[in-house]
Specification:
The protein is mainly β. The chain has one domain (about 15-105): Jelly Rolls (Sandwich). The protein is about 5% helix and about 50% strand. The protein has one helix at about 115-120; strands at about 10-15, 20-30, 35-50, 55-70, 75-80, 80-85, 90-95, 100-105. Strands 1, 2, 3, 4, 5, 6, 7 and 8 form an 8-stranded antiparallel sheet that branches. A hairpin with a 5-residue loop joins strand 2 and strand 3. The relative contact order is 0.23.
């Protein structure tokens, strides 16, 4: 057995796209796909406005914040929220209190999770 760390301290600071208080710990890096990492956003953190280079799945594991894409209004996210951005989609993420998310980037994703709107409609 080997034990690894994807803690903030194991990652690198990122300031691309005007990002603030962002640290990325790589988990899985393949030549093509998928890429998996852990993003640690600190207090008043921001992942700046940018295009998704390939489809991205953003899995919030702790904290809370807001995401937006294109011309859409911000949407609140917290632990257990999963946000999908398609290739080329402009988006950003921000938090006031801090947020940690696992990010998966892959050309082909067979997502099977229920969509939040569908859950709300069932109630």
């Amino acid at each position: 057995m080997i034990v690894y760390s994807f803690a903030k301290e194991a990652g690198k600071s990122i300031d691309a796209f005007g990002s603030q208080q962002l640290y990325m710990s790589r988990i899985l890096t393949e030549a093509v796909s998928p890429q998996v990492g852990c993003m640690h956003l600190g207090v008043n953190g921001l992942i700046g406005w940018h295009q998704a280079p390939i489809p991205q799945l953003f899995l919030v594991v702790s904290g809370e914040g807001w995401v937006r894409a294109g011309e859409e209004a911000e949407i609140s996210v917290s632990a257990s929220s999963a946000v999908y951005w398609d290739k080329g989609e402009w988006h950003e993420t921000r938090t006031e209190k801090g947020l940690t998310a696992i990010v998966i980037e892959a050309e082909n994703m067979g997502l099977t999770m229920p969509i939040v709107q569908e859950i709300l409609e069932r109630r």
